[in-house]
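ARCHIVE CARD
Drawer: 12
Card no.: 0347
Subject: one protein chain, sequence and derived structure
Cross-reference: see card 0346
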Amino acid sequence: MRIAASEFILFCNPPEDNVSRLRQIVPEVELMLDGDAWDYTEEGWPLQAEALKKLGGPYTVHPAAWDVNPAAPLRALREAASFLNKAAIRFCHTIGGSQVVYHPGYYDRDSCFSKKRALDFCYGQLEELVALAEPLGITIAFENIACPASALFTQEEYIHALDGIPSCVQFLLDVGHAHCNHWDIPGVIDGIGERLCGFHLHDNDGIGDLHLPIGEGTIDWEPVFGAMRELPEDVLYVMEYAAKTPLNELEKGKRLLLEKVGR
């Protein structure tokens, strides 16, 4: 069973230190390219790449997420998202990573902006990313994001979001985000299972995106675990806990996943 931890739990600390600490608990780490250490320069991220390659993989990569919106109404904001997403794909390839998360963007349902245009922008950028990632052998992990007021996809729309999209794009189901949107999580797993590359695992109260450890919110995990047991062994389970969560929560989460899902 592939169990990983997101660097988010140690957010804004030096990435090589984060990886060294997380690798004492889990074999795989999802790098979060956001914060002080990832302020892109003309040279890119050569120091980070050198340090992380010395530590060795496996890695997956989460591009910058704060203030980043591929579906934004303004071209300048979309271009910034494109730049950061493409930089993340190149960086992933440089360090020998296998997968880059794609946040498809946000849509303010109370605004006057067009949802159709937002979706067009989302898929237009995805097409550009596929052209870059596919020849490099990088999987693009299409994540469900945001709470109801700004989510671009409903449950049914998300299940069909990759219809007709190249196979290098796979689903990454964020269980916490799904719960905020009151989705039937086992139903989503069943609907996308054959194209599911991984999960972001965290809990919440069904209202806010709290990134709590598994079991500390209101998600009914037993049916979720049951659906997970039907999935292929190469699916990646990333514990994406909030910054400053005690690291022993990752140990507890790992033991729980092995008990409830592991084969």
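Annotation on reverse: Residues 71 and 120 are 8 Å apart (CA to CA). The mean pLDDT is 96.
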